Amino acid sequence: MSGAQLARRLGVSRVVYAVVPESSAGDLVAERARKKAEQLIRKTNVHMALEQQGLDEKQLSFELERLQRELIQEMPSDLWNDD
Hints:
It is a single chain. It is built from three helices and no strands. By secondary structure, it is mainly alpha-helical.
């Protein structure tokens, strides 16, 4: 029996299928923003290190958090793209 057939038998006007994430939407966005920030900072720091301008661990941590907040706030269209 299909979902639509079951709905008719139960007198339900509409059956809706949904995907329910294990965590909140905010948590998903924050995690994705962190991953994106790590990718961007890693790429940038490699180039900076080649010119002896690389960041130390404290600076990297600060920039990672700053960029993550910026990505969450701005929600760029490429946030969900895998690079």
